[in-house]
Design brief:
With 158 residues, this protein is mostly helical. It has helices at 2-23, 55-68, 91-110, 115-125, 130-146; strands at 31-34, 41-44, 112-114, 150-152. Among the domains are: 27-72, no CATH class; 91-152, no CATH class. The longest helix is centred in the N-terminal third of the chain and has 22 residues, at 2-23. The relative contact order is 0.07.
Length: 158
């Protein structure tokens, strides 16, 4: 009985495989990608790497990208305008930056971050520029994660 079931299962698998081979197309159709605003579809074989594109393909791709980001095109509205550089830090910001750097250096040297340290840093973080705040918090996180700074606060560490 067991041999009969195994034979029937093997026969079913073989018939299914044969039917799949017979009904499958002889050669796969290449994928088509429509080119926006040109109307002519570009035929790209599945799995084609950009490194294997010809000079004409790369030139056409470059032209399409340039046309898409040209001023007045719908895609140009998506690109945000260049931002003005941030203003130079004020003397108050420079003083807060120095004080917070000294505070963090002292805490790392002691190996402890206390509630007093957190309160002092909290007061200074609102004054320093964004880039300085991010760098300060990253430096603090690295010190905590490396074990050089142990957090001994009852609340948030900053």
């Amino acid at each position: 009985m067991r041999a009969y079931l195994l034979g029937a299962a093997a026969l079913a698998i073989g018939v299914g495989f044969a039917i799949g081979r017979v009904t499958a197309p002889s050669s796969p159709e290449p994928a088509t990608v429509s080119v926006v605003e040109r109307g002519a579809p570009a035929v790209i074989a599945p799995g084609t790497c950009v490194a294997h594109l010809g000079d004409d393909d790369l030139r056409r791709l470059r032209d399409e990208v340039v046309a898409a980001i040209a001023p007045g095109s719908p895609a140009a509205a998506i690109v945000p305008p260049a931002e003005d550089p941030p203003p130079p830090p004020t003397p108050e910001q420079l003083a807060a930056e120095d004080a917070s750097a000294r505070l963090l250096d002292t805490a790392i040297a002691a190996g402890r971050w206390t509630d007093a340290d957190a309160a002092a840093l909290r007061g200074q973080l609102g004054t320093v520029p964004d880039a300085t705040r991010i760098a300060m918090l990253q430096r603090m996180a690295v010190a905590i994660n490396s074990g050089r700074l142990h957090v001994d606060t009852t609340g948030a560490p900053f």
